[in-house]
Amino acid sequence: MSDYRDIFRKPETKNWFKAAIGMKITRDCLLDIVKEATQAFYHAIRKEINRKHGILENSVCSQCHTPNVLPCETNNKCCTYRKCVFHKIHKPLNCPSNNLCNSICKEIVSHHRFRNCSNSHSFQGPTWVYTEASKWCVQSWQIARCYLSNDGYKDVNQAEDADFNGIVNVIYNCEFFQRYFKDDLTQKENICTKVIQV
Ligand SMILES: [Zn+2]
Ligand SMILES: [Zn+2]
């Protein structure tokens, strides 16, 4: 047992512990921001869709699945060339509520920081594989999920399940979140890139 105590007395252990606690506190604060901002983002999207297409902000749809509204294109990271597995069951179609879900899909793309970025593998526009479009109108986290990185977030069904990196990815990848930060997130080096590196 004395060996264990020695480990805990070591300064590097103490520093590691402090860093871990610090990260936990930061993550919890960011989580609150993300939850609030995600809701605000949904309303901003709906406002924009109303302005562009006249679809009322209180009209909702729960019928469309993500493959229904995501065009079958191999550059979206889900679709496979020729026989697409992603679109095997649900084919692309127009949302019965005046194309509402298709419009939300387009707004998600247009707010992604790396929507036009195709050379860096990890950042290529939204991640569609985890989100469920049929819940976009009732659970704004399903929209936020499109801004997670492409791996390891399959079971993150609510904001509370997201780890530190996931939360920072959502904040960084979705340009809507800029308004919550003083730091200019368009700069190559910014608070988010530094945090992700750490
Ligand atoms: Zn496809
Ligand atoms: Zn729909």
UniProtKB/TrEMBL annotation:
Q: InterPro entries, from UniProt?
A: DUF4559
Q: List the Pfam families.
A: DUF4559 (PF15112)
Species whose genome carries this gene? Dreissena polymorpha (Zebra mussel)
Classify the source by domain of life: Eukaryota
Designated name of the protein:
Uncharacterized protein
